[in-house]
Amino acid sequence: MAKIENQQTVYCTFQDAPGHQYPGHPESPKRLTAIKAWLDNAPYPEMEWLDYEPARMGEVTLLHHQHVVDFVREESKKGAHEIEPSPSYVTRTSYQDALGAVGASLRVSRQILETGSGRGFAIVRPPGHHAEPDAPMGFCLFNNVAIAAADAVASGCSKVAIIDFDAHHGNGTQAAFWDTPEVGYFSSHEAGLYPGTGQVDDAPHARQRIINVPLPAFSGNAVFNTLMQEIIEPWISVFKPEMIFVSAGYDGHFSDPLTTLTLNTHGFFELTRRLVGLADTYCEGRMMFVLEGGYNMIALRDNIGASLAAMSGHDHFTDESGAGPGSLSDPGDLIEELKGYHNL
Ligand SMILES: [Zn+2]
Predict the structure, then answer these.
(1) CATH assignment at residue 168
(2) Please, which residues have CB within 8 angstroms of residue 145's CB and are 6 or more apart in sequence?
(3) Hey, which end of the chain has fewer CB within 10 Å, N or C?
(4) What mean pLDDT is reported for the chain?
(5) Is 2 inside any structural domain?
C-alpha cells in the first residue's frame, strides 16, 4: 500500500470509559468497541501510544469553574442518574472518567508542543465540546479540547485554533473562548440540531476569530471540500495559530442515527488529509484531534481509522458503509455570506 504523505509520529491515547454508561443512551462505551478491536489489530506503524494520568484539579479549572468540578464529583458519588435534560448522565465512575478524558487529551497536546511537531488523536469519551465553563451539557462533562487549548495558551502558545467538524455546534467551546483573542474557533454543524446555537452572527464581536457555519442537511463531502478551500484555509492563513486542535465528531456520517449531514468515510479521510496539509503549512505540523460525537459504531471505527490513515500518511483504510447519498444541497449563498461576514 502506498504512502502518500510525509511521515510524522501520530501520538495517541485511548479511553473507552466502560463504567460511564446509561440505559438506552447513545453516548455509550459500545461506541468504541469496534475501533478498540481495530486498533488492537491494525494500527499504522507511525502511531505511538502514550500513557496518561487523570487530569488534576488545577488543569480542569483552567477552563471550568470550581463548582462544576465539585458538581460532577458529588453527583457521581450518587450513582447513575441524569444531571441535565439533553440528557447528560453520570455514574459512579464518571468523575474519574471525565478526568481521564481530559488527562488523555492533555497528554497528547503537551507531547506535540514539547517535541515541537507531530500529530495526535485523543480517542476518548466522555466527549467535551458542549460542556460550558459553568455547566456540563449535551452528553459532555468536562470540555477536553477546550482545556487542552487553554493549556497550550497558558504554556506559551501565542495563538491556537480549534476546528470543530462535529455535526452539532460546540457551544461549550465557543462560550469558553468568547473573549479570548488567543483562541480561534471554527464550527461547522447541521442547522436546526441541538443545542440551537452556532448561527453565522452568533459572535459579531469576534469576526474572523469565531466562525460558525450552520449547514443544510445533506451537505455531504463536497461542502466540506468547499469549506476547506473557501473558509478554513484563508482563515488559518490570517489567524496564524501555532497549533490546530480539532473537535473530531463523526456524527456527520450518513449512517449516524442523530444527524443528516451525509458525509462518508472517504470524506472524513479527505477532510483529515487537508487538515494535515494545513497544519504542515501554517503550524509546523502541530495538530491534534480529540474525539467528540459519532453514534454508529462501525462507521465510527472506519472514520477514526480513516483519519488515522491520513495523519499517518497512508491511503488505505476500511470502509464498510460505502458512499451513501452524497451531497444533495448547495450552500453557495451561505459560503458567500461567511466570506463577507469574516472578510475572508
Ligand atoms: Zn455531535
Answers:
(1) 3.40.800.20
(2) 105, 128, 129, 162, 164, 173, 245, 246, 247, 290, 292
(3) N
(4) 96
(5) no
Residue 3 CA, ligand 1 centroid: distance in Å: 31
pLDDT of the residue at 188: 98
What's the domain count of the chain?
Answer: 1
332: in domain: yes
Look at residues 314, 254, 287, 335 and name the one whose alpha carbon lies nearest to residue 120: 287
What type of residue is 264? N
**CA–centroid distance, residue 330 to ligand 1 (Å):** 22
Ligand 1 centroid distance, CA of 268 (Å): 15
130 is catalytic: yes
Per residue in 87-115, pLDDT (tens digit) is 999 999 999 999 999 999 999 999 999 99
Q: Is residue 61 part of a domain?
A: yes
Residue 329 three-state SS: coil
For 109, the domain range is 10-341
Kindly name the residue from 20, 64, 129, 130 that is annotated as catalytic: 130
Q: Is residue 3 part of a domain?
A: no
Ligand 1 centre from 299 Cα, in Å?
14
Q: What is the pTM of this model?
A: 0.97
pLDDT at position 3: 47
